[in-house]
Amino acid sequence: MKAVGWVGTWLLGVALLGCAKESADPALQEVSGNWRLVKIVNGFSQTTQEGAQLGREEKLVINATTRNFLKTTNGTVSANSEVVISSRNGRPTLLLLDRNTYHYYAIIPGAKKTMILYEEAPIGAELMDGSNYYFEQE
């Protein structure tokens, strides 16, 4: 009888875990989704690359539920990390925990929502001449 009670409890636990849904991180909701690189503005020179000038296809998938940041370049994974939102020097920041790096970011609302990522930098470092990467939400 005790074995049936233990098995029943175990099955109930498994069923409840199977029904549990991960909840999305509210802080990541704003940046969650699929993004495509459309423009780069380079540091001090402020030169711009768009379209074919980019020379590559770069996409981001940011998942607020799994807290994952995935970047592909020409279809190959170039970054994959747990991500959290933070603030650094008063600026909104994506922390890529598995890479020990960060990106400052900004969101530009509009018909096509745009996210600007500042050059990736090691946590603890401050870049003085990084580029801005413009991603449109797909």
Walkthrough of the structure:
Helix content is 13%, strand content 46%. The N and C termini lie far apart (57 Å). Mean pLDDT is 87; it is low at 6-20. It has 138 residues and is mainly beta. It has one helix at 2-19; strands at residues 33-41, 48-50, 58-63, 68-73, 76-88, 91-96, 101-108, 114-118, 121-122, 132-137. A hairpin with a 6-residue loop joins β1 (33-41) and β2. The chain has an eight-stranded antiparallel β-barrel with strand order 1-3-4-5-6-7-8-10.
Question: How much helix is in the residues?
Answer: 10-25%
Distance between the termini: 57 Å
Range of strand content: over 45%
Number of helices: 1
- Average the pLDDT over all residues and give the rounded result: 87
For the biggest sheet, the summary is: 8 strands, antiparallel, barrel
Order of helical and strand elements: HEEEEEEEEEE
How many individual β-strands? 10
Q: In angstroms, what is the radius of gyration? A: 20 Å
Principal-axis shape: globular
Strand order of the largest sheet: 1-3-4-5-6-7-8-10
Structural class: mainly beta
Low-pLDDT runs of 5+ residues are: 6-20
